[in-house]
Amino acid sequence: MKASVGSNPTSSAMGSNPAPREPAELVDAMRAALEQARDALNHDDVPIGAVVLHEGKVIAARHNERENYQDPTAHAEVLALRDAAEHLGRWRLDDCTLVVTLEPCVMCAGALVNSRISHLVFGAADPKGGATGSLYNVSADPRLNHNFTVTHGVLATECAQLLTDFFAKHR
Ligand SMILES: [Zn+2]
Fold first, then answer.
1. What angle do CA 13, 17, 23 make, to 5 degrees?
2. Strand 49-54 to strand 57-63: parallel, antiparallel, or no bridges (unpaired)?
3. CA of 45 to the centre of ligand 1 (A)
4. Sequential pLDDT tens for the chain (171 residues)
5. Is 158 a catalytic residue?
6. How far is CA 85 from CA 19, 35, 159, in A?
7. Marked catalytic residue, from 77, 86, 103, 158
8. 94 Cα: distance to centroid of ligand 1 (angstroms)
9. Residue 107 C-alpha to ligand 1 middle, in angstroms?
């Protein structure tokens, strides 16, 4: 269920570090992201949700609002990063984890680099647009000034099913 393709392998035995390392904590966070994803359906947006964890707590929870705002940048990850930065009063999120139901696109992977996030967790892979392992791997590109750890496949089936159901209805 987990594999690290970023700079640092995660460890569940990192002493007093309160960062979310335990799979159970990540599963709980993904459930919160899934709840967000379902909220996107209220305005007919593609159901993708994201939460940001800081010291084991959810400090931001958003969903895709591209249709709702008619904003091409209103992806769940970007909105969650903005809320997290506002909450902490700083743009640098190097002690945070972003948990999202679908593998981030190029824009969101770039936003993660720019936020200096330490850890990305995603559910379903996106072979058509994913930029943290599928089409590109922005998380581990040595040419960039920041890399981050990636854990993938958390509740992947549920995350993918939500999207499959949505596209079946909207095709
Ligand atoms: Zn995106």
1. 55
2. antiparallel
3. 13
4. 444 444 444 444 444 444 445 579 999 999 999 999 999 999 999 999 999 999 999 999 999 999 999 999 999 999 999 999 999 999 999 999 999 999 999 999 999 999 999 999 999 999 999 999 999 999 999 999 999 999 999 999 999 999 999 999 987
5. no
6. 17, 22, 25
7. 77
8. 19
9. 5
| Structural contact between residues 47 and 41, judged by C-beta atoms closer than 8 angstroms | yes
Residue of 31, 26, 59 whose CA lies nearest to 159? 31
| 75 Cα: distance to centroid of ligand 1 (angstroms) | 5
Task: Return the amino acid letter for 62.
Answer: R
Q: Can you tell me the distance from the alpha carbon of 161 to that of 151, in angstroms, rounded to the nearest whole number?
A: 19
Tokens of 41: 């359906």
Length of the chain: 171
Q: Note whether 92 and 70 are within 8 A (CB).
A: no
